[in-house]
Amino acid sequence: METIYDVLSAEHDQVADLLQQATCNGSRESLLKVKAKTDLHMAGEEKLFYPLLQQKDELCDLVKHAFKEHKESKTVISELERMDESDHNWTSKVEKRNEKKIDHQVQEEENKVFPAAQKVLSQDKAQEIAQQCL
Prior knowledge:
- There is one protein chain.
- By secondary structure, the protein is mainly α.
- It has a single domain, classed as Up-down Bundle (Four Helix Bundle (Hemerythrin (Met), subunit A)), CATH 1.20.120.
- 87% of the residues lie in helices and 0% in strands.
- The chain has five helices and no strands.
- The two termini are 12 Å apart.
């Protein structure tokens, strides 16, 4: 049975693929697909996963940092939405978001948050959260 870690990792891969498409074709449609997927992904983390981790004192700072990074990601996407896709900065901002924000955030989640969460959440709980996300 899938765990929350499996679900979130798969979503990370999907977002990376969508960002790559947006970078390659420079279209607003691709950006809107990225936004839809990241909004859903971050909402799931913020409602189902992070609150459980926040209950553990040793994970509070890690979760606060994750919330901060989500806020930054939402700001960047909002900026991109307001820009004209023909603006020469548009594609470079999409690339920057991919390289600096998404890659960094994914690495932190998969290398720091997931291992820390696995120490405090049971396998059953990780599977239960995964079911709630699906």
